[in-house]
């Protein structure tokens, strides 16, 4: 996307309103992840404002993070318990976590797509593998691209009310697998833009990335409560372990 910079896309304005758009499955996410943190240590890639990390830490699990945006880390620090989480500022495909090894490394909410090259996504898997204990697991939550795409150019109505209209304007390049989006909000106060670019990957490509990193698929679910992953699933939760 012309003018888009991943390093600054989660700046002050985005970080301020980020936690206003909760999905409602955060408790299920925390419960699932807590069940995998066998020895009580976890590393979150793209930890953001701590929406998952803080309640996970409240389960008695040591949670560290890697995050590219200082503004998102600032919001994390403002939340109760946020100062107790150790965060490395950097790119999740290359930055080293505060500790050498974790029983759980996880990446949720499609964040793997924020890495805009295949090489970067492979490095992310390799970085996760380098942080795992011998029996540790890497968990990735991501949407299934076929559930998102409506052709190479399309517009979705995300919200329609008397006071606000939010449109999701999309353009997809099948050669690069890059989806350029702009969430356009119209209100009486004016127009607000929310641009983001993502590189979409299908589960099979993700499994190959894991293999390159010395990992293999252990489980794949259609939701945080163990829903089966089927051809109609809109997302997947994939659990990888050492081969």
β content, as a range? 35-45%
- In the sheet with the most strands, the strands line up as 3-2-1-4-5-11-10
Sheet bearing the most strands, described?
Answer: 7 strands, mixed
Assembly annotation: single chain
List low-confidence stretches: none
Helix fraction, binned, reads 10-25%
Q: H/E element string? A: HHEHEHEEHEHEEEEHEE
What distance separates the N and C termini? Answer: 37 Å
Number of strands: 11
Structural class: alpha/beta
Describe it.
This protein has helices at residues 12-17, 26-34, 53-57, 70-78, 118-131, 145-148, 203-212, and strands spanning 41-45, 62-67, 86-89, 102-107, 132-143, 153-160, 164-173, 178-187, 190-199, 215-221, 235-242. With 243 residues, it is α/β, with parallel strands linked by helices. The protein is built from seven helices and eleven strands. The longest helix is centred in the middle third of the chain and has 14 residues, at 118-131. The strands form two sheets. A seven-stranded mixed beta sheet has the order 3-2-1-4-5-11-10, sandwiched between helices. Strands 6-7-8-9 form a four-stranded antiparallel beta sheet, with no helix packed on it. Helix 3 links the parallel strand 1 and strand 2 (62-67).
Summarize the structure.
With 243 residues, the protein is α/β, with parallel strands linked by helices. It has helices at 12-17, 26-34, 53-57, 70-78, 118-131, 145-148, 203-212; strands at residues 41-45, 62-67, 86-89, 102-107, 132-143, 153-160, 164-173, 178-187, 190-199, 215-221, 235-242. The chain is built from 7 helices and 11 strands.
């Amino acid at each position: 996307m012309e003018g888009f910079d991943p390093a600054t896309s989660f700046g002050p304005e985005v970080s301020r309103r980020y936690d206003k758009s909760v999905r409602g499955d955060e408790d299920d996410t925390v419960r699932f992840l807590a069940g995998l943190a066998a020895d009580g240590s976890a590393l979150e890639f793209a930890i953001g404002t701590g929406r998952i990390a803080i309640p996970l830490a409240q389960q008695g699990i040591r949670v560290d993070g890697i995050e590219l945006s200082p503004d998102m880390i600032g919001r994390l620090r403002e939340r109760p318990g946020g100062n107790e989480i150790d965060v490395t500022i950097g790119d999740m495909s290359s930055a080293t976590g505060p500790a050498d090894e974790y029983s759980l490394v996880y990446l949720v909410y499609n964040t793997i797509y924020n890495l805009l090259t295949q090489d970067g996504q492979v490095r992310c898997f390799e970085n996760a593998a380098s942080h795992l204990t011998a029996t540790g697991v890497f968990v990735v939550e991501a949407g299934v691209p076929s559930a998102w795409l409506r052709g190479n150019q399309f517009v979705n109505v995300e919200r329609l009310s008397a006071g606000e209209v939010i449109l999701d304007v999309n353009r997809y390049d099948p050669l690069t697998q890059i989806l350029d989006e702009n969430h356009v909000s119209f209100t009486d106060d004016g127009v607000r833009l929310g641009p983001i670019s993502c590189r979409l990957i299908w589960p099979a490509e993700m499994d190959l990335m894991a293999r390159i990193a010395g990992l293999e698929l252990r489980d794949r679910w259609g939701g945080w409560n163990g829903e089966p992953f089927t051809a109609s699933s809109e997302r997947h939760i994939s659990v990888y372990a050492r081969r």
